């Protein structure tokens, strides 16, 4: 895939900002900068997984999911409840804690990785079930109905999680969530291990998403996105294929949400507010390029690099009125960047690749090779090639 100059320039600027601010603030402390970049890399990889999940829905099938935060909250809390022990205080209340129940084989240290593994699986499963329920509540997955339903569902989930103290500890949230194999490493070692684990998960999700979009199933989804009536005319069920895309994208979001819980080690309903829980991922996907999984990863990197770096503007010699408003001005800066990208690159930094199936490409290449000798052996009529009478 070719990368044009604008895409490369924006990626380099984002990288320069991401490295430059902490390098300047730390006085050139390479160790501190490396730690900061490793932690930033963790969240970029997690958000890239979630953005690929949104791309499977929006980029493949054109499904408008404005309730990403609701799916993330369900997945993250389910994963956290699989790891935590049962509540032991009247000030900490949640429905269950399964962590100690998985100390099945002490020799294999199952208590250090089995709860996290089952938590990821459960998060993907619950998010998939939520997508199925939502799909059948919004007949035919129409864009307008589904967009409104997903917004309402996300806010309902967040409100219930905040108000019901006995469910997931209310607005106090969950704390003490540990990642896989965390007790076996030192802090510095675990940062590297967790980054490598996230990278492996992202590569697996990317491979699965790429394989699906290049398959006949993926081509049907892209056709549905363009014209549902034409797809229905050849006997394909639009609802069934869009439901599959919606469920698959939700499952990928569940995996990303579980890893977010293990990264944060604590969760509150405020982590899934609409601006950060939904809007940010839409910006990442649109900036990177809908319908392109590489674009989803690139968009997650660039947008998060700019988003996290805006908080460091408070270290600059600015008036006090501006410094106190930096947490709010970052939304303005992100909005300006988003609008600029919509004007400069409407299709995203890495637009969707338009290509036919490999089978058709091989068939066309064979036909061209078979016809080449006959074409080269033909003689031209006297006076050169004959012109079309109409065009002349």
UniProtKB/TrEMBL annotation:
Which spans are transmembrane here? 6-24, 36-60, 66-84, 114-138, 145-163, 190-209, 246-263, 275-291, 298-316, 328-344
Q: How does it sit in the membrane?
A: Multi-pass membrane protein
Alphabetical GO CC annotations of the entry are: plasma membrane
Pfam families per the UniProt record, alphabetical: BPD_transp_2
One GO molecular function term of this record is: branched-chain amino acid transmembrane transporter activity
Q: Which PANTHER family match?
A: HIGH-AFFINITY BRANCHED-CHAIN AMINO ACID TRANSPORT PROTEIN BRAE (PTHR30482:SF10), HIGH-AFFINITY BRANCHED-CHAIN AMINO ACID TRANSPORT SYSTEM PERMEASE (PTHR30482)
| Protein name, per record | Branched-chain amino acid ABC transporter permease
Which organism is the protein's source? Hypericibacter adhaerens
């Amino acid at each position: 895939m070719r990368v044009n100059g604008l895409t490369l320039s924006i990626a380099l600027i984002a990288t320069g900002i991401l490295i430059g601010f902490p390098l300047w603030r730390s006085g050139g402390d390479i160790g501190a900068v490396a730690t900061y970049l490793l932690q930033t890399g963790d969240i970029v990889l997690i958000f890239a997984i979630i953005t690929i999940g949104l791309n499977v829905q929006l980029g493949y099938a054109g499904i408008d999911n404005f309730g990403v935060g609701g799916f993330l909250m369900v997945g993250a809390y389910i994963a956290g409840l699989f790891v935590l022990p049962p509540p032991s205080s009247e000030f900490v209340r949640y429905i269950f804690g399964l962590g100690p129940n998985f100390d099945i084989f002490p020799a294999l240290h199952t208590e250090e990785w089995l709860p996290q593994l089952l938590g990821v699986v459960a998060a993907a499963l619950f998010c998939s079930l939520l997508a199925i329920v939502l799909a059948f509540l919004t007949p035919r997955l129409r864009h307008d109905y589904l967009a409104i339903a997903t917004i309402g569902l996300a806010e309902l989930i967040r409100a219930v999680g905040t108000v019901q103290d006995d469910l997931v500890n209310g607005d106090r949230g969950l704390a003490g969530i540990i990642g896989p194999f965390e007790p076996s490493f030192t802090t510095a070692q675990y940062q590297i291990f967790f980054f490598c684990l996230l990278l492996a998960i992202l590569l697996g999700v990317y491979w699965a998403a790429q394989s699906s979009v290049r398959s006949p199933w993926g081509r049907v989804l892209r056709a549905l996105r363009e014209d549902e009536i034409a797809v229905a005319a050849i006997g394909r069920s639009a609802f069934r294929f869009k439901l599959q895309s919606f469920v698959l994208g939700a499952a990928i979001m569940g995996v990303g949400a579980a890893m977010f819980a293990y990264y944060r080690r604590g969760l509150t309903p405020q982590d899934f507010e609409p601006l950060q829980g939904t809007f940010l991922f839409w910006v990442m996907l649109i900036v990177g390029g809908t319908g392109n999984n590489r674009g989803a990863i690139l968009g997650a990197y660039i947008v998060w690099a700019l988003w996290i770096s805006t908080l460091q503007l408070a270290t600059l010699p600015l008036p006090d009125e501006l410094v106190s408003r930096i947490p709010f001005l970052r939304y303005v800066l992100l909005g300006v960047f988003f609008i600029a990208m919509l004007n400069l690159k409407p299709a995203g930094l890495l637009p969707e690749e338009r290509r036919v199936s490999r089978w058709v490409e091989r068939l066309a290449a064979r036909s061209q090779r078979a016809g080449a000798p006959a074409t080269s052996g033909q003689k031209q009529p006297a006076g050169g090639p004959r012109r079309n009478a109409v065009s002349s």
